[in-house]
Amino acid sequence: MSIHASGLLRHRPVQPILGDKISIGVIGTAETVEGFERWLKRARSGIEGHSTKQPNPPFHGFGNVNPFRCGFEVGATAKRVLPRRDITDLDSSIAVAWSAKTAEASRPTNPT
After folding, report:
1. What are the boundaries of each domain within the chain?
2. 106/112 Cα distance (integer angstroms)
3. Which of 16, 26, 32, 68 is the most exposed place for a label (fewest CB within 10 A)?
4. Is residue 24 within 8 Å of 78, Cβ to Cβ?
């Protein structure tokens, strides 16, 4: 078990009331919102660890019996589905801004 996982299990994060729920907001396409909800449901019961070149400890899940001592949920009012076009436009805008910033950073300075 990793140091981080064993610390959470041993000392627990601060949580005022056992059984509280943390509401998670999700913004994305219909596919990504639904995919996140499926993943969260699957992760509630935990994920087995495995040993490879980089060992991964087990994840104990997002149910109420976990190191966080609370549940996680996506409320019906905490979902926003955006058209794929809007996300593509946003992704393109970020790529353009990143390219401009990278080009500016790589431009040699002229000490005059």
Report:
1. 3-106
2. 18
3. 16
4. yes
